[in-house]
Amino acid sequence: MNLKAINHCAATLLGFSLVCGWAANAAPSAEETLDHLPDAVQKTVRAQVGQGRIRSIDTDNQDGEVTYDVEMVGRGGRPRSFTVGPEGQLLDKEVFMNELPAALRKAIKTKAGTAVIGDIDRSYEDAESTYSIEITADGKTRSFTLDEKGKLVDEEVFLPELPQPFQTAVRKETAGATIDEITRSYDDDEISYNVDIVANGKTRTLTFDGDGVLLSSQEDIPLSEVPQAARKQILSYAANGKLIAIQKVTETNTVCFDADIRSDGKLKSYSIAADGKTIDSDEGE
Hints:
Blueprint: H1 3-25, H2 30-35, H3 39-49, E1 53-62, E2 65-73, E3 79-84, E4 90-95, H4 102-112, E5 116-123, E6 130-137, E7 140-147, E8 152-157, H5 164-173, E9 178-187, E10 190-199, E11 202-209, E12 214-220, H6 228-237, E13 242-251, E14 254-263, E15 266-273, E16 278-283
Antiparallel strand pairs: 1-2, 2-3, 3-4, 4-5, 5-6, 6-7, 7-8, 8-9, 9-10, 10-11, 11-12, 12-13, 13-14, 14-15, 15-16
């Protein structure tokens, strides 16, 4: 074989190797990603996608709780997103106005007023579904939540919109911190405000009543920061499940630790005092 032929063969083999190497390192397709997920998750994803097409699947790990964010395209070419939990439970799903009951559509349009309606997400995490609606007006984007009957559950507000005495109270309690978001919640005839703040790289939620009186402070903490007696009780509850998150809750001079534990496909919440005594427990879906 002459030198020219040898060089040609070498170039061909090099090109073949590069192509094979690229193929081996290429990112897996959405379908390939799906095939490697837990069976329960696969089942839910395929049921939601139906005859549509999966565009992407992203894994999100928050405090050890893995969820799967799926982007898809329906048969008509319309994109949609939804989130699936580790047990295959559907957590939330993007929905469209024409899919909603007439009463709910009316409630959304009434609340939105002249604002532009954006994304609508249906949440399945509670016993009853809720709908989070994003709207934009005067260059500001905010969201509000309605229940299945169209009743207002909560809404995002901005500090300058609130009464001056309330603003003063909030600024006093959040001095030195950055206000991230304020949510006004409605529970029967009672109104409260959750103010998310960031200070020293940590996020806390302060809850105020309608008059601006501080009711509580909540902060996510690791298990290592929980007092020994309370930590022991939390670990006993988590023995047959998975510890998802712990919140340190301060009300006046009382401190407790709220632990979320997933067991048997259900999310269970326990409120534990510093001395290890169980104050309250709640079992959800």
